[in-house]
Input
Amino acid sequence: MRYRCTVVGVASAAALGLGAIPAAASPAVPEPAPRVADATAVAATLTLTPARPVEPAATAVSDPANPDFRRFLSPVAVRDRFGAPPARVARVTRWARGAGFAVGRIDATGSRLPITGTAAAARREFGVDLVEATVSGVRVRSASPVRVPAVVAADVLAVTGLSQPVAEPLSLRSCLASPNTSSVLAAAAPLVTAGGCASLPSVVGAVGGVSCALAWGEQPGPAPLSRALPGRVSQPLCGYTGPQLRTLYGLAAADTGAGQTVVIVGAFNGSSTLVDANRTFALTGVAPLPAGRYQVRRYPAAGTARVTGCDRAGWALQQATAVQVVHTLAPAARIVYVAAPDCTRLVDALAGVVADPGLVGAVVSLGWGVPAETVADDDRAATDAVLARAALRGMSTFSASGIYGTAAPAGTWRSTVAYPASSPFTTAVGGTTSAVGAGEAVLWQTGWGSVVGDRHQVGRRDLAPVELGGLVPFGRRDFIPDGRRVVVLAAVGGGPSLDVARPAWQTGVVGGYRQVPDVAALADPLAGLRVGLTDGGYLVRPTGGTGLATPIVAALTALAQARTATRAGLLAPLLYARTAAGRPPLDDVRHITAAVWIPQPRGGLVVAVDAARQRTRPGWDPVTGLGTPGAGFLSALD
Output
């Protein structure tokens, strides 16, 4: 597991407990990136120009005001109407072979043509500079912008695979320790992680030595804090159980998802996923997942050598989280886990899902993403084409809107919109902190934005501002001079995409760019879902992130399809249209001032809820979008 941290703001290093920073030296001259050797095998995918534009047709079948609304197409019709004409495929194939590439078979959608050659051939034909780079610890290939040869320029929409974008899983685990330190940054570092918690014990009434609650507020904070925020303070949860999660979304016993298929796209495949899931279900009040309703498929089945350095622990957590969420909410649905060969081939795996004729009407969960501003134009064009074809087939895709903060996969302090969540052909999922109290009573929901502060001047009678959070050491005074800066522990990465224009269906938002997210669900790992995973040993821990929220919304959509006997397709346009018409299918989420209290040897740590710079507000907001599924969501597809 790779741990990442960041220094926030301009607070002194000593104030943050980081020690002294050496005096600035002359800047080092960066060494040039090593070139990919000419003989290196390189695989790429040519997305061919379709016979007719795909995106307008996908928008039409997804728009409730369009006569073609929900006139979804069969896989054969998608290929025949929107695949590349045979003459185009033949022309590009002849060119590629003449240029020294081996050419694979066109995919079932008639749009993606795989080629393999050497780095020298790629440089010569596409005019790219291929170098080696390290992104998030992953050794990958990076390419300059592609120039398609003029002879086939009109035939090729995009070239992907020359650069290898690194996708990050967006689930987080609560890994509470008992740090005895005056540094908030050091205290916060082990609270949440994107990977494993092998060094800490499993949840059995306590998390790593810190008491945890079985329901929100069961173990509130100290009296001054609890009096200031009645009903809105809790020690960290041990993780909600299956019955608590189903209660949160108003599910009845008859809501099982029978006849539905939920596809989870991830990287790698955990060999113990099914065993871990059923072991966890036995502890959390959920019926077992039969082996016959859990399938693993691998797309693409073959290719060049895998990259090294992918966060396998994080991907294992993402897989376990999604499988356990989907079965908890839709226990009769079929789950298909699609494993990409590594963390750079997620879109290839998604394309395999869309091309699969056996997945008609499937709901697809994409609990991962890459920073939107790093996505090359060709990668965006190719991925949008895949997602648009999914919409044409009546598939519903849901994409995690990202995470930021010191615990985020990228360890970044600023909100970064994730891709493919910012695509106009998927529904982007944000996150909530949700309080389910004793007796499975749903107390409140607000946006997920966990914040601690580097100010902790507090005695017995002086409580740090809840808006900032921070250490609350009862019985002594402690003060960090740089007192008003905060550390975002983890929060929803939402807001505008600076590369994607706002689609016409996204009404009620400000600005000319695509805004993320569209919908939200439970995401706070300090009040998340209890998830079991073998990570050195079998562990059950609270799990959150938009990688949790995304399969929640996907599973609820499968339930809605089952209840209404309707395929949803691209869901976001319907959500905005119904909201604009005064019939919102989602419950608007409002700001709640609340906190999680984490006891420490000399006081405790206050983690403020919905306290990041982007906060929840009435109507659409960059944390929860239009809102969260409520009691009316399952009937909203009618």
